[in-house]
Amino acid sequence: MPRKRESTSTPVELHVVSDSTGETAARLVTALEAQFPDQPFVEVRHPRVESVQDLARAVNRAKGRPAVIVYTLVKPEWREAMRAYCRSGRVHYCDLLGHPIDSVRRVSGMAARMTPGARAALNESYFKRMEAMEFAVKYDDGIGARGLEEADVVLVGVSRTSKTPLSIYLGYLGHKAANVPVVKGIAPPPELFRLPAEKVVGLTIDAERLAEIRHARVSSMGGSRKYAGLLEVYDELEEAARLHRRLGCPVIDVSDLSIEETAARIVKFVEDRRQAAAS
Q1: Which of 95, 223, 94, 251 lies closest to 161 in space, CA to CA?
Q2: How many Cβ atoms sit within 10 Å of the Cβ of residue 224?
Q3: Do domains 12-108 and 124-278 have the same CATH topology?
Q4: Averaged in consecutive runs of 10 residues, what is the pLDDT profile of the chain (279 residues)?
Q5: Going by C-beta distance under 8 Å and a sequence separation of 6 or more, which residues neighbour residue 104?
Q6: Rounded to an integer, what distance in angstroms lies between the CA atom of residue 257 and that of residue 259?
Q7: Which one of 48, 90, 227, 249 has the fewest beta carbons within 10 angstroms of its own beta carbon?
Q8: Cβ(91)–Cβ(61) under 8 Å?
């Protein structure tokens, strides 16, 4: 597996400024960093700013440095002050809320609440996500045939291919996900072969990478060293590949993918195959 090159570049400071927790801006910063894998970054958070003076202090901290200020500020006067401070201090900046709020206001004709830290309403979408996340926990690791029948997506793969975190994350997105482990010498549940083909997705991983992951788990939590052996890993991955072919399901290699990237591919596979089946 290729290793990430050591970078000699000067770290870029990403200052996250918010009148709330700053989680919205932090998620963007994470996505931004992924686009520059060889560039080191330093994140500096300024959450829950309470005054224009707090904004000035954040800009002064970034001034004269290789820095970008990313901010989520609800009050129009604070956004204007931040723009002025950044321009005056010659600091690059990005306003994450200002333009979207203005655009929605123009299209809808409604004024925004302008309440820092306002939470989304507990609507139908919220409760659907909670139900889907509870479903993922209840039917994790092949527990219960009913879970396979009721699931929107069923993940099939060997141990340590991120089946559980993927199921939970898919639940967060509102998709009911169950998963079935592939274990050498143990037959998969017969219900798996009666599922609509479009809802099943296989997971695989590079053998050496999987052996690394399992070795780390055995070292920290104990267990059989055979579980982490490369020969055992190859045997299990071959058994999983045979099962995937038997199921006729698409297979995603998770070796170098994040949970978010893998989940996006899973959702696309299932939706594309469901549409194809319907037509």
Answers
A1: 251
A2: 10
A3: yes
A4: 52 93 84 86 93 96 95 92 96 89 82 62 76 92 86 96 94 94 93 95 96 85 77 95 97 93 94 89
A5: 112
A6: 7
A7: 90
A8: no
User: Residue 143 is encoded by which pair of tokens?
Assistant: 């527990």
Q: Which helix (H) or strand (E) segment is 125 a member of? A: helix 124-138
CATH topology for 12-108 is Rossmann fold (3.40.50)
Structure tokens given for 53 = 């003076």
Name the token pair of 139. Answer: 């039917």
Tokens describing residue 268: 């696309």
Kindly report the pTM of this predicted structure. Answer: 0.63
Q: How many residues does the chain have?
A: 279
CA-nearest of 97, 90, 87, 17 to 52 is 17
Who's near 10: CB < 8 A, 6+ residues apart? 40, 66
Q: How far apart are CA 161 and CA 213, in angstroms?
A: 9
Q: What CATH number does the domain located at 124-278 have?
A: 3.40.50
> Could you state, in order of their start, the residue ranges of all structural domains in the chain?
12-108, 124-278
Alpha carbon distance 187, 109 (integer Å): 59
Bridge partners (DSSP) of residue 178 are 154
SS3 178: strand
d(CA 65, CA 67): 5
Question: Radius of gyration (Cα) for the chain, nearest Å?
Answer: 24
Residue entry with tokens 């993940």: 155
